[in-house]
């Protein structure tokens, strides 16, 4: 299975269906996962179900607003109760509505992080809510919404097709392709490309089969190799050879021009000169509004500029940042740390996956490596999810001091699974912990230095205290 995960406003993560080998969807960075026993586990390993058949899932992690994880994987078969209800039904509309509701029911059944389903029998829930269906699609969505509300989970919800489009800004590949492995070892387009995406503009349709990427045959590639081929360097064109499923004589070549979110993730940045007791600092201030698919590209440009302006310390302002693409948070962390654990993802079976960066996969701007410059993270009560992941990663690895107020406290991972009609299901599938094993859900992260007035000019006045705390933290680290 190909999958990518989004936390809060969005973040993408990938994994392989059968062997739990993660597929790195990062456009620039492919973060490493720590080996556990003899296998590599990723949080969506729970999708390893023998009865799955082809379909795409877009997984999102949400907090306050949407957050994502795009999973491309095999879809669930009908539950037995659905098959029973279909017997004797002849109206196509009713069958279609049952199929759609069964997709949602099965996703909850297999992936919801609470196996008790908030104290309900999920089989009984199917019988109760499937009986309410009519031949109208709007009724199906209303019934599905009511069914998911039974979970009493404020972060799980049904997404109508019209709302799916807005998730494009978290597509780290810049293509809009929704894929799953085909039976013959190639890649199958299993969902309609979102309107306006490069894939849709190129006329790619459900059922098309990708047999080669940039001249390399897909058959025989591992999931990681296929994902890396699709991502390229984040800027290049993507040349695909396609044919229709089941045919080998009607191949065509399609060139996709990658398109990433044009929303500005970094609305402001500047240099603040400051004279400390024993050193003159030129503090580079950077405001990060969200972690969308282009945040890493934008941040690299900003860091490159600030470095050329003489920056020797940094302030990352995450105040009001409610999250975004998990991959974006990992990429940003890799700019400021050369190795270490970024976050721990724990699925409903209590399996842990560590997302890490190392010196071979980190991001660099013109060979600039600000991995030792003093760093401050500004937070407030609205800093959430992917923001909390970045803050805790840099803090726990002794790269940054947290200044400001306690963060929001969003420690659950949601996934938005794409449905066959173009809609989706946002579903809580896991929780996460900081590198130091802190569960922050409904607790938040306490700053090292509490500060109500967090203007950069106020922060730099704390610089001696900030420097002292960084030194103490680094001294506490075990020696290599």
Automatic annotation (TrEMBL):
InterPro entries: ClpP/crotonase-like_dom_sf (IPR029045), PDZ (IPR001478), PDZ_6 (IPR041489), PDZ_sf (IPR036034), Peptidase_S41A (IPR004447), Tail-specific_protease (IPR005151), Tricorn_C1 (IPR028204). GO terms for biological process: proteolysis. Residues 164-245 form the PDZ domain. SMART domains: PDZ (SM00228), TSPc (SM00245). One of its GO terms (molecular function) is endopeptidase activity. The keyword Protease applies. Keywords: Hydrolase, Protease, Serine protease. CDD domains: cpPDZ_CPP-like, Peptidase_S41_CPP. It comes from the Eukaryota. NCBIfam families: prc. Belongs to the peptidase S41A family. This is PDZ domain-containing protein. It comes from Galdieria yellowstonensis.
